[in-house]
């Protein structure tokens, strides 16, 4: 969607898109929900040569209203930017819109802006803040498997003064060894503050082995990093035991690290839910504490 106050995304309050459109860069992009949504409304915006869709002043004024509401209520709000694009995509015509976004972030101090990218190597070339990051910027990157984790997270950690550094392991496609990047006793270098994990949704979704999510949760809890389990996605464990006429659904078998057989059932995102081992993991980081850690 272009923009959403009271977003349905579990880890944010609002979504804001400075533009629509992107280019696929890694396996997580294969079944891009944003591209699917754009096509649904008749727009072809994905690819290096396709146009991007831009918006009016009225659109850009909405976060100013959200900021005023947050001030009146005395409660901060999180804004996911951008659900239909990548703020750090390498296209020259986006520069003026990025500059407008940085100004908007600076004049909305009650909004915590979640900048999630698959291009963390471009962050330093795009942002104007250097060593003086605004207190309301949460900086994240997507890491769907170990290859992309090890490629992207070191780039993210080049910005230790961002108030929050986070990982979105959604869709999650394998075990992730997060230990080099999480807090540890005696570690003084900047670490990841927050990890979001979840399975892929949609008709062509690839299943997530439950052991991948459990292992990631355990690494975070042991290290003291915050963990948020967003969803199972289109596939969920048969062991959830909910009466959903699952025997009529397609089933596949996967194995845990101990060789235990696990059965996944194709139920859809809503029916699958988002509890992991009986718990809804809704942890969030504390920006001020994160900002105190610097390389």
Summarize the structure.
This protein has 295 residues and is α/β, with parallel strands linked by helices.
Counted by DSSP, the helix tally is: 8
Question: How much β-strand is present in the residues?
Answer: 15-25%
CATH architecture label name: Alpha-Beta Barrel
Low-confidence stretches: 289-295
Description:
By secondary structure, the protein is an alpha/beta fold. The chain has a single domain (3-233, 274-291), classed as Alpha-Beta Barrel (TIM Barrel), CATH 3.20.20. 25% of the residues lie in helices and 18% in strands. Helix 6 (210-223) links the parallel strand 7 (194-198) and strand 8. The longest helix is centred in the first third of the chain and has 17 residues, at 57-73.
What keyword list fits this structure?
single chain; about 300 residues; alpha/beta; TIM Barrel; eight-stranded mixed beta sheet; 11 strands; about 20% strand; disordered C terminus
SSE arrangement:
Layout (H helix, E strand, L loop, with lengths): L2 E2 L9 E3 L16 H8 L16 H17 L3 E5 L13 H12 L4 E7 L5 H4 L10 E6 L3 H11 L7 E6 L24 E5 L11 H14 L2 E6 L3 E3 L13 E5 L5 E6 L2 H4 L14 H5 L4
Parallel strand pairs: 2-3, 3-4, 4-5, 5-6, 6-7, 7-8
Antiparallel strand pairs: 1-2, 9-11, 10-11
């Amino acid at each position: 969607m272009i923009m959403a106050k009271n977003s349905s995304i579990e880890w944010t309050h609002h979504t804001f898109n400075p533009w629509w459109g992107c280019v696929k860069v890694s396996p997580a992009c294969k079944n891009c929900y944003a591209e699917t949504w754009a096509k649904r409304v008749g727009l072809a915006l994905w690819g290096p040569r396709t146009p991007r869709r831009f918006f009016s002043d009225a659109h850009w004024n909405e976060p100013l209203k959200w900021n005023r509401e947050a001030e009146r209520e005395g409660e901060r709000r999180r804004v996911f930017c951008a659900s239909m694009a990548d703020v750090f995509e390498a296209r020259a015509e986006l520069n003026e819109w990025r500059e407008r976004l940085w100004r908007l972030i600076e004049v909305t101090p009650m909004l915590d802006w979640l900048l999630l990218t698959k291009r963390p190597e471009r962050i330093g070339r795009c942002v104007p803040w250097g060593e003086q990051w605004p207190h309301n910027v949460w900086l994240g990157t997507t890491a769907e498997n170990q290859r992309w984790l090890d490629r992207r997270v070191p780039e993210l950690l080049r910005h230790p003064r961002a108030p929050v550094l986070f990982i979105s392991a959604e869709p999650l496609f394998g075990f992730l060894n997060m230990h080099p990047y999480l807090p540890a006793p005696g570690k003084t270098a900047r670490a990841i503050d927050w990890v979001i994990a979840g399975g892929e949704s949609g008709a062509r979704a690839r299943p997530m082995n439950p052991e991948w999510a459990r292992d990631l949760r355990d690494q975070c809890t042991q290290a003291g990093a915050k963990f948020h389990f967003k969803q199972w996605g289109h596939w969920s464990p048969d062991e959830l035991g909910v009466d959903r006429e699952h025997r009529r659904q397609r089933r596949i078998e996967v194995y845990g690290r101990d060789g235990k057989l696990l059965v996944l059932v194709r139920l859809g995102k809503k029916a699958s839910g988002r509890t992991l081992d009986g718990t809804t993991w809704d942890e969030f980081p504390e920006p001020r504490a994160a900002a105190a850690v610097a390389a």
